Fold this protein.
Amino acid sequence: MCVGLSARVVKVEEGTALIDAGGAKREVSAGVLDDLEPGDYVMVHAGVAIAKIASDDADEADTVMEELL
Amino acid sequence: MNDSMKRAREIITSYAGRPLRIMEVCGTHTHEIFRLGIRRLLPEQIELISGPGCPVCVTAVGFIDEAIWLALEKGCIICTFGDLIRVPGTEMSLAGARAKGADIRPVYSPLDAVALAKENPDRQVVFLAVGFETTTPAACLAAKQAREANLRNFSLLTANKTMPNAYQALVGAADAFLYPGHVNAITGNATCIRLCEEQGVSGVVAGFTASELLTALAVTVRLLSTSKEPFFRNCYPRVVKDEGNLAAQRIMAEVMEPCDSEWRGLGLIPQSGMKLRAEFADYDARLKYAMPVITGKPNPACRCGDVLQGKIRPCDCKVFGKVCTPMHPVGACMVSDEGACAAYYQYS
């Protein structure tokens, strides 16, 4: 249900984003994300960018663990 | 491995308290936890059980039969996520139908099916819309695109599902849930917070990398052993916001509406599905083709239903690994990469 592909936005045009996922490029829908800009990182699912990615997972782990301990 | 991951790993491996049952609701979590070797870290007091969050696994047998009817009786091109192709229907799978001449095409996105319809104006194209809140916005975008282009040769066969009422059906199945990160990326956290506050259901939202899964499990184990109150934590904040994706929520509400839905193994769960609104009736394959009521008959030997509810492990099913293998699946959980049976078979 949750297979996602993290990718960098290369270009945004008329509701479509060209993304780069580890060198593989593909057009996906930007129809449910406002204000996407080149350079943003997004989570892509079934051909749609569904969320912006705010940081890398190591930083996230640091934050989550600091709150826990 | 950084300090946070080391700490998370230590919390998990050193746990020596009461037995804990943690349900990974999402099939991708099941797969990644196996693949990354995280299960090998778990002390015997911590049991991970798989939940119903693999859309292919919970898709009812009758849905496959409906798709085959459209393919063989109506001659439609069936576009589908690849996982569905080998899921057994009552008499055959979509792969079996293809062997009988049906035109079955795997696609990555519902939007690819719209493009295919545009390229083939003389053929009828039906997209098999399965999936949870993560995937439903893509199907809704496809319906909108088709209507905007006034496409008359495209429709959706819907079996989209939503999680809130499934969570209700699973209350008590585990000490805590690992909530599916990308569902919450769309829906936000309100349902999970409400479950915690009103029904005492504990859980954390988890991401999908090794770091994210380790920290989510560590948070769950630590809080289950120290917190006197039910808890909710978002351990995937780099992607999941409390409010979710409002634009995706709007488009889902515009194109689809809740309906009762049959889940393989769980039965009919009221208001746990999504169907096209009346404004999109022209794109509803069941209406467009005046489809008769088609009720599937699951193989009685298959215990996917018990697996999906965490009642048994895949290896407790009599046909697991014998009659039922990835090459010859009896049940849907052995087909999809996200299926618990497929993950157990591949990694155990």
User: Anything to note?
Assistant: Chain B is about 40% helix and 20% strand. Chain B touches chain A through 56 residues (CB under 8 Å). The longest strand of chain B covers residues 267-276.
